[in-house]
Amino acid sequence: MATFADITERYIHQERLRHVAEYDSLTGLANRYLFQDRLKQAFFTSEREGAEVVVMFLDLDGFKIVNDSLGHAVGDKLLKKVGERLLNILRRVDTVARFGGDEFVILLNPQEKQLAVAEVASKIIQSLAQTYQIEGNEICVTSSIGISGGTAKNASPEKLMKQADAALYLAKSEGKNNFQLFNEALDKEAKKRVFMARQTRSALRHNRFFLEYQPLANIRRKEIVGFEALVRFNDELGRCVYPGDFIAILEESGAIVEAGNWVIDEACRQLSQWHAQQLFPLDGFMSINVSPKQFLDDSLLDSILGSCERYSIRPQCLTIEVTESVLIDKPAKIQRTMSQLKEQGIRFALDDFGTGYSSLTYLQQYPFDHLKIDKSFVANLGSDENSAKITKSIIALGKSMGLTVTAEGVADEPTLKILSAYGADYYQGYFLGRSTIADTAIAQFNRALAAAAN
After folding, report:
1. What's the rounded Cα separation, in Å, for the pair 25 and 192?
2. Can you tell me the distance from the alpha carbon of 62 to that of 354, in angstroms, rounded to the nearest whole number?
3. Per-residue pLDDT for 170 more than 90?
4. Taking a C-beta distance cutoff of 8 angstroms, is the pair 414, 392 a contact?
5. 167 contacts 148 by C-beta, under 8 angstroms
6. Burial class (CB within 10 angstroms; exposed 0-12, middle 13-18, buried 19+) of 14
7. Is residue 318 a contact partner of residue 347, using CB atoms and an 8 Å limit?
8. Residue 132 is inside which H or E element, if any?
9. CA dihedral in degrees (11, 16, 17, 20; nearest 10)?
10. What's CA 405's distance to the chain center, in Å?
11. What is the mean pLDDT of residues 32-42?
12. Which residue in 285, 240, 238, 232 sits closest to 259, CA to CA?
């Protein structure tokens, strides 16, 4: 016959097992299993009372930087403090769960006021943005939140979770440190994103990526000086898909490094072929766009220099184009990689100049050779006085720093004449020619330049 002590010990053991099964070992918050169970219970309540169930997906902005720079021990302590702040804001009847990493999910028990949801989200964002003191470090992170709500009549647990995740994606794309409520327009966007993600994965698996080449020409000599390699892929129906629709997906999935290395290699292969056929000037260059995640990956240096060696390309023939977003994360690492490539002869262009906030600082800190004026200024050059002043100033700035200046988006001859008068070096755009595949690029654009010169 079991004694009272035996029963008590068995009960304690069972409770420990239950706690392990239902709670996150690091933060003590509910885990995925317990959260999903409570979400189902909330829908049972909603079915009886008709009240709304609200789910929030929360992600920390910049958590990876903390982990990488200060170590996982500090990162773990930060996650614990975030959990504590969330518990202090929310009601006892609400559920806060950690699904893993820096991903938290919140269940607001059935309630009526939609306004209260926005108030709760605002309080969370404000609270989590306050400074954390951990092991002598002053840490600042922000948060992004996606919110979805519904009742048992018009939703399900699975539907709310998917919608909240889609809203979180929007919050991050809107600059982070904000919350977004799911709506029907977002539903369409989410479905489009899911479809495009599937198409992108399929293109990667079946090697349907290809490059088109857009020429850059010398304004005064009207000769092609280089090409910008632009990546595309054909979807399952053979339609061309452009970077604006899939680069973000490659970034999110981590496949951008693999795809980016392929772009580098294929551009070098094509340049080598043009050289061998004497279709391209030996002092011409190929411009290649490199993403932030590629720059943070240790394989970038070997990828570029390896492709140059494999196809007997002089490094001086390559120009790497970067935007300001490349330079924001881990500037010391970016600067080191750029310097190593620069030592080998690789050149760099700062793309979309004039659209960011710190371009002058970047020109001072990083080894740029070119800057490219964003097409938003060039497009209005003949009709907008401010665009003309900005463009003229950018060209003068570039010249004063010993940089060559390229104008993007040149669509007509009057614009080209203005840029020539301002002293720009190169141009690209529809007036010179649209991007096209390698087989037709050289002949097509040389004909266009010959016609323009006559």
Report:
1. 37
2. 26
3. no
4. no
5. yes
6. exposed
7. yes
8. strand 132-134
9. 160
10. 26
11. 92
12. 232
pLDDT tens for residues 134-150?
Answer: 998 999 999 999 999 98
| Angle formed at CA 31 by CA 132 and CA 55, multiple of 5 degrees | 80
Q: What are phi and psi of 452, to 5 degrees?
A: -70, -30
Counting beta carbons within 10 angstroms of the beta carbon of residue 166, is it exposed (0 to 12), middle (13 to 18) or buried (19 or more)? buried
Residue written as token pair 């995925």:
32
The strand pairing partners of 134, in sequence order, are 137
Tally Cβ neighbours within 10 Å of residue 380: 16
- Give the number of other CB atoms < 10 A from CB of residue 45: 14
Estimate the share of the chain in helix, then strand, then coil, as percent rounded to the nearest 5.
Answer: 55, 20, 25
**Residue the block writes with tokens 């693999």:** 258
Q: Number of helices and strands (H, E) in the chain? A: 18, 16
Q: In Å, how far from its chain's centre is CA 238?
A: 26
The two three-digit tokens of residue 83, written as one number: 């959990």
- DSSP secondary structure code for residue 316 in this structure: G
Question: For the segment 275-326, what is each residue's pLDDT rounded down to a tens digit?
Answer: 888 877 777 899 999 998 898 888 999 999 999 999 999 999 999 999 887 7
Alpha helices, DSSP H, located in 216-323? 243-253, 256-276, 292-296, 300-310
Give the type of residue at 88.
Answer: N
Cα–Cα separations (whole angstroms), residue 232 to 52, 263, 428: 44, 10, 19
Three-class secondary structure of residue 321 per DSSP? strand
Buried b (16+ CB within 10 A) or exposed e, 16-33: eeeeeebbbeebebbbee
> Residue 290: how many CB atoms within 10 A of its CB?
22
| Alpha-helix residue ranges (DSSP H) falling in 291-437 | 292-296, 300-310, 324-328, 331-343, 359-365, 375-378, 385-400, 413-422
Nearest to 53 by CA among 159, 177, 142, 124: 159
CA distance 254 to 171: 20
For residue 243, which of 293, 290, 302, 294 has the smallest C-alpha distance?
A: 290
Taken as a whole, the chain contains a residue count of 454
Q: How many angstroms separate the CA atoms of 246 and 85, rounded?
A: 36
